[in-house]
Write a structure and sequence with these properties.
Layout (H helix, E strand, L loop, with lengths): L7 H4 L5 H14 L5 E2 L11 H13 L11 H15 L8 E4 L2 H12 L5 E6 L4 H8 L3 E6 L10 H7 L4 E7 L11 H12 L5 E5 L15 H4 L7 E6 L12 E4 L2 H12 L7 H12 L4 H21 L14 E2 L20 H12 L1 E2 L1 E2 L9 E4 L4 H16 L3
Parallel strand pairs: 1-10, 3-4, 3-5, 5-6, 6-7
Antiparallel strand pairs: 2-8, 7-8, 9-12, 11-12
């Protein structure tokens, strides 16, 4: 059989590490193993009933046909209202794009704007897909690292140093996947001052976790905090995290009309519109009751405190307290170089996570996948009971290292 002719573009990218860990955990469970999966980035809460009901009503009304490529007008209006209400941002309908998931929004923006050799500045730790999608679209990711000592947030001087004549985009994700770190309004303004001096650079802000913040942290969107660069900013969001709608696949963005039009052109020749029923469900999500969101965030905060305290109690681990999202990102570098009970010497975070899964049946994602070797990511988007058991296994694993 002839080999598949893999494209040079695809050879540039790696498969998603988070999906790989989640799939491995599922396979092990199917084989009868008692696996605790802490790899998935999705809330364990169900989609609220009013949103489900809106989808059912849309089906009954016959809203089952193709829609406008980049979203129905009702959803665009709801998104514009959301931006105005929650983010102090004004966007017209022609400035809003709807895609089948937040990942598709990012891909369409990169596909519409990147030429070979264009640079995309990506702060690390980063969500696994940012650099890979930039590579797939022909761009070159430029990684700017911010360690645990900096709270996993880049400084203005780092950003300024990374910008070149080839820089096309800067990606800012706050609160962050994988660290949960969130930029304050003043920190965003400081980055915006740098970007204001680089008019050729566009800014992509991923605000997907804006509603999952803790300890009275006040979320700010970069385009609102830095109005001088509003015309060069694509503000990305979606309904997956706050509304527990990961499987509905609705992402959206607000930005300059010309960019939105170009993204629509890319959409028209790739996925076309997001699912019609999902779009009507998203209308209800954004315009219906919002009171459950802070209630769920409070539950996530309780879980965060449980997980961070538990990880810091484990031998060789050190974990910052995240400002948002539902991930902890512990440093495991002090545990590396030791021997696990199965005889493996843990040379890096990848081997650490592999041994943790093999011995204690806890699935976590290595930090190397996020551009931060020596760490691993834990999702606490699961029940307190499951997290308590997972922490007990992690502590037992770390205590057994020699």
């Amino acid at each position: 059989m002839p080999s598949v002719p893999i494209s040079e573009a695809l050879k540039r990218v790696q498969p998603s590490a988070t999906l790989a860990v989640t799939n491995k955990a599922r396979e092990m469970r199917a084989a009868g193993h008692d696996v605790i999966g802490l790899g998935a980035g999705e809330p364990d809460f169900d989609t609220p009933d009013n949103i489900k009901d809106a989808a059912i009503e849309a089906i009954r009304r016959g809203e089952t046909k193709y829609t406008n490529t980049d979203g129905i007008i009702e959803l665009k209006r709801a998104i514009a209202q959301k931006f105005r209400r929650e983010n102090d941002l004004e966007y017209g309908n022609e400035q809003i794009s709807v895609s089948p998931g937040g990942k598709a929004v990012i891909w369409n923006a990169f596909l519409a704007t990147l030429n070979p050799g264009d640079e995309v500045i990506v702060p690390a730790p980063y969500w696994v897909s940012y650099p890979e999608m930039a590579r797939l679209a022909g761009g070159k990711p430029v990684i700017v690292s911010a360690g645990i000592e900096a709270g996993f947030k880049i400084k203005p001087e780092q950003l300024e140093k990374a910008i070149t004549k080839k820089t096309r985009w800067v990606v800012i994700n706050s609160p962050s996947n994988p660290t949960g770190a969130a930029y304050t309004r003043d920190e965003l303004k400081a980055l915006g001052d740098v970007l204001a001096k680089a008019p050729h650079v566009w800014v992509m802000t991923d605000d997907m976790y804006e509603h999952i913040v803790y300890d009275n942290f006040t979320f700010a969107s970069l385009a609102a905090a830095c109005p001088d660069i509003y015309e060069r900013t694509l503000t990305i969001n979606g309904v997956s995290k706050a509304y527990s709608m990961t499987g509905w696949r609705i992402g959206y963005a607000g930005g300059p009309a010309d960019l939105i039009k170009a993204m629509g052109k890319a959409l028209s020749q790739t996925t076309s519109n997001a699912a019609s029923i999902s779009q009507w469900a998203a209308v209800e999500a954004l315009t219906g009751p919002q009171d459950f969101i802070p209630e769920r965030a409070a539950i996530f905060q309780e879980r965060r405190d449980l997980v961070v305290n538990g990880l810091n109690d484990a031998d060789g681990l050190a974990c910052l307290k995240p400002e948002g999202a539902f991930y902890a990102f512990p440093d495991c570098s002090s545990a590396l170089g030791k021997k696990a009970p199965n005889g493996d010497v843990l040379e890096d975070d990848i081997e650490f996570c592999a041994a943790l899964l093999d011995i204690e049946k806890v699935a976590a994602v290595p930090g190397a996948a996020f551009g931060a070797p020596g760490h691993f990511r834990v999702s606490y988007a699961t029940s307190t009971e499951v997290l308590t058991e997972a922490l007990a296994r992690i502590k037992r694993f770390c205590a057994a290292l020699k």
